[in-house]
Amino acid sequence: MADERKGHTNKKDHQLDQFRVDDKGKKLTTNQGLKVSEDEFSLKAGVRGPTLMEDFHFREKMTHFDHERIPERVVHARGFAAHGEFQLYESMRNVTKAKFLQDVTIKTPVFVRFSTVVGSRGSADTVRDVRGFATKFYTDEGNFDLVGNNIPVFFIQDGIKFPDMVHAIKPEPHNEIPQASSAHDTFWDFVANNQETAHMIMWLMSDRAIPRSFRMMEGFGVHTFRFVNEQGKAYFVKFHWKPTLGTHSLIWDEAHELAGRDPDFHRRDLWEAIENGYYPEFELGVQIINEEDEFAFDFDILDATKIWPEEDVPVRIIGKMTLNQNVDNVFAETEQVAFHPGHVVPGIDFTNDPLLQARLFSYTDTQLIRLGGPNFHEIPINRPVCPFRNNQRDGYHRQTINVGKVSYHKNSLAGNTPSEASVAEGGYQHYQEKVEGRKVQGRSKSFADHFSQATLFWNSISETEKMHIINAFRFELGKVKSKSVRQQVVDMFANVNLELAIAIAVDIGVVPPKSGGSNITKASPALSQQNTTFSAFSRSVAVIVTDGFHDADVKYVLSSLKASGLQPEIVSEKLGIITGMNGTQLEVDHANLTADSVLFDAVYMIRGSDRNKKFNKDIAYFIDEAFSHYKTIGATHEGIQWFEINDFDGKTGVVIANNMNTFAHEFIKEVAVHRHWNRQIV
Asked: What is the DSSP annotation of 281-313?
């Protein structure tokens, strides 16, 4: 099963194959193909003389090095990506003419980039932040980019406010502090004075903002798009990605520690999962609303700060994406990939969502400065799998060699080619929506409600999730220096839930509000992570073992864990080989110096006959921390004494047994739970 797939990288025919270069065993050349005989010393006038300008190899090498760094993204700079494929479960021909959503036999290549939003490329993975979830579908009709996030709503309603929002959440300009954090004055000042942010802030303060991994977070298209079928009928649609492993999160203390222990935690997790054959899977879901029902809801369906509750508009699962190949080069692929919500195919169109409308301009403008000109579509990772032909010419980094003298439309010298394709031939046609009205700078009154869905979110989550939100507010606002801003935020969120606002105020030195609250009682159970899928598959288990372990029993448990798709990793005093009572040898994956409980989903304590006191102290901390983070911990043989000493026996999520069959079964079942929230910390 999973163990058999380990090391399988699934290298297969791919649209980038012609651009891949393996330099192993080859001779060094310049970029022009000239073989280089010396790469250690520059050309000089004598061994101690000045370097000569005619050393073209030195100049080429140094010039390229000087320009290796392109401007990082203003937002979503910290990203990681993978290749995969998408395949339909059922044809969507009745609602869209997009061919890749019609034929269930087609496997569409995809490239997915996950990212944080606020931090620079060098920031940590596990900060509290929105996560980008951008997917490029390489369809036979052209590239379709679904550029979304792991949160279904956004901070603002109109794209003209996007620069303000980003300026507020980025490090403050006077001292460039803090990095990759929203816990500072300017951001919360923006929140308090732009109250359309209320719903998004509830999500940002929730566990959704600190996902366990990219593989265990949802993705959302955020905006309302249109499906258009072959008869020209249109439907409103929202896109969802549902991870087959369920939607799971870290806890705040754990996320903090991971930022120091392994700032690459999320990207390492994605890379290793694919390398080991635990391919991340996401099912694509759509919510569809008929055009005639556009105004049938108590919210505006074009408002990006609103969700369509799944109980009102069910999510229809239509296909699955599998990420099965890591990138070969992070810069060439992950950093140079150019996403754009305006990259669509026939059958997918836009709506008048004012935030989406702004993004249709912004993304092209961004790529021009980041990637050096208008030819970013010719970079291998951005090239469509179908041919592209037009009269665009020249510009920085042009790779296409256009033949002939005609580069305009209309023409007679080339028979007026390239010519337009009719709709029947697959030509894109914008949906012909009737639009009329005065030129205004304003916003529909239907966008005026900023608090009802923030309350809906609060009503929908578990008591544990609510406490995490309260603590997140306390931490974030506790970092805000301005008491006035702290007070404004508390007063603002009294409109969401009065008890929430009071609980926040108590710990941050402001006056608790005496009035407020909401009469919204509606809930959407789908919003709680307590109602997600739970699975032990691909979870990592720290197996703490030393010399003198019980061979047969340990081998049985390890094989049971692997057979269930878990990833046991041996942790001991030092790297090398440890030996059981009957001579069985195990290779150590982690020395305790470089291992920590936050790097694993669960802990299995075996020990052995070794009695190293220093190691005992380190392991005691390891176990205690895993327990305090609500993780599953288990013990057999000599490991049981550690649980008895700490009075762990009988606690939720603690598995102790001498019968190996019983232990393995119960331990795997408990690991699938993810966290044991009702555990009392000792």
From this structure: EEEEEEEEEEGGGTT-SSS-TT-TT----TTTS
Verify that 234 and 288 share a domain, yes or no. Answer: yes
| Residues in the chain with pLDDT values less than 70 | 1-15, 610-615, 680-682
User: For residues 610-641, b (16+ Cβ closer than 10 Å) or e, as one string?
Assistant: beeeebeebbeebbbbbbebbbbbbbbbbbbe
Q: Which pair of tokens denotes residue 108?
A: 């569409």
* Rounded (5°) CA angle 209-270-344: 75
Instruction: Output the pLDDT for position 10.
Output: 47
Write down the pLDDT at residue 19.
80
Whether 269 maps to a domain, the answer reads yes
Query: Is there a binding annotation on residue 363?
Result: yes
User: Residues 149, 375, 382, 592: which is the catalytic one?
Assistant: 149
Is 113 marked within a binding site? Answer: yes
Structure confidence by residue, pLDDT tens digits, 159-172: 999 999 999 999 99
| The pLDDT of residue 680 | 55
Same domain, yes or no, for 233 and 376?
yes
Q: Looking at the structure, do residues 476 and 509 belong to the same domain, yes or no?
A: yes
Query: Can you tell me the distance from the alpha carbon of 668 to that of 548, in angstroms, rounded to the nearest whole number?
Result: 25
Query: Is 590 labeled as catalytic in the residue annotation?
Result: no
Q: How many CA atoms lie within 13 A of 667 on its CB side?
A: 32
H or E element that contains 577: strand 577-579
**486 marked as part of a ligand binding site:** no
Structural domain boundaries, residue 501: 449-530
pLDDT score for 610: 66
Question: What pLDDT score was predicted for residue 8?
Answer: 42
Please report which residue ranges of 548-596 form alpha helices under DSSP H: 551-563
Q: Is 519 a catalytic residue?
A: no
In a domain, 12, yes or no: no
pTM of the full predicted structure?
0.93
Q: Which of 501, 530, 559 represents a domain boundary (last residue)?
A: 530
Total tally of structural domains belonging to the chain: 3
Is residue 437 left, alpha or beta, with left meaning phi > 0 and alpha meaning psi from -120 to 50? left
Is the same domain home to 162 and 220?
yes
**Residue 614's pLDDT is what?**
65
pLDDT at 682: 42
pLDDT, tens digit, 9 for 90 and up, residues 37-69: 888 788 888 887 788 888 888 888 877 777 878
Specify whether 227 is located in the same domain as 103: yes
Domain-embedded: residue 681: no
**Can you give the pLDDT at residue 681?**
47
Residue 370 is labelled as binding a ligand:
yes
Q: Is 48 among the domain residues?
A: no
